[in-house]
Amino acid sequence: MMKYKSFDHMDCSLAQTLDVIGERWTLLILRDIFFGVKRFSQFEKSLDIAKNILAVRLNRLVDEGILLKQSSNEGSHPEYKLTDKGLDLQPILLSMTHWGDKHKPNSKGQRLIFVENRTGQPIRTMSVVSKEGKKLNPREVKATLGPGLSDTWPFEPTICQSDF
Amino acid sequence: MMKYKSFDHMDCSLAQTLDVIGERWTLLILRDIFFGVKRFSQFEKSLDIAKNILAVRLNRLVDEGILLKQSSNEGSHPEYKLTDKGLDLQPILLSMTHWGDKHKPNSKGQRLIFVENRTGQPIRTMSVVSKEGKKLNPREVKATLGPGLSDTWPFEPTICQSDF
Questions:
Q1: Same structural domain, A71 and A82
Q2: For chain B, which terminus, N or C, has the lower number of CB atoms within 10 Å?
Q3: Residue of chain A whose alpha carbon sits nearest to that of B103
Q4: What is the reported pLDDT for B161?
Q5: CB A100 to CB B131 under 8 A?
Q6: Across residues B108-112, what is the average pLDDT?
């Protein structure tokens, strides 16, 4: 089994998230479950993934409280289900999907269009939004130190302003 | 060198994105560059990452047009810079950061607070937004097939409605 260096020791919300969902395949497993895949054999078929890798990934997601493993009506085949913590991953998946739509398009057009259930209208492209609800471009945003990061922050505070 | 199975053959915007940025470390490298890190030795120090892994990741990001490698004023130390394609990754990084803020918090409070440059006001938590600008929760969204996915889509169309 491939061993990864854990990012769990890093006091960074992004690294903490990557420690949970940053292994390759994990986001594809989550994509499938958002689309209604529920059983081990269905993931295996949809992803063409080795059993042992799939099992480790699913167990990790259950341990993290992202998936719930429950017996199905038919008994022998457990089903996986997103918890609220798992549902909270949707903005990550959709941000990645929209980036791929834009920068790795299918020549025939958009692959999937995500719409609001109630209206059938396409959702907005994932972007940063100001307090007032305005779309912000990347250069209009900066990081400031919160109470959680004391002197552990490795960058100069001014560097957060970034000059990309 | 660890070899990964490529996701490049998958006609899925999420898999395409993961094929580019889904290797562990890559998003931490991108995080650092968003914070102003520019040089190889700075990434090495900030991330405590092996030289060969860092080099492969940086080269890949340059090849993909996400980073630009340019000579610095002082000559010998090239600097890495985000392109517009790279800047477009910001919603992914911030979605992950906000998930970590909520589900893997620091007990002393928020680590970093991202604000609008102009106003200093915190940005909204990354979420799906309707065409009209309303925050949508995960259950209010569904996928519909676009022109790019013909009969290659492996799921039943209705399954996109998802019953999570």
A1: yes
A2: N
A3: A85
A4: 44
A5: no
A6: 91
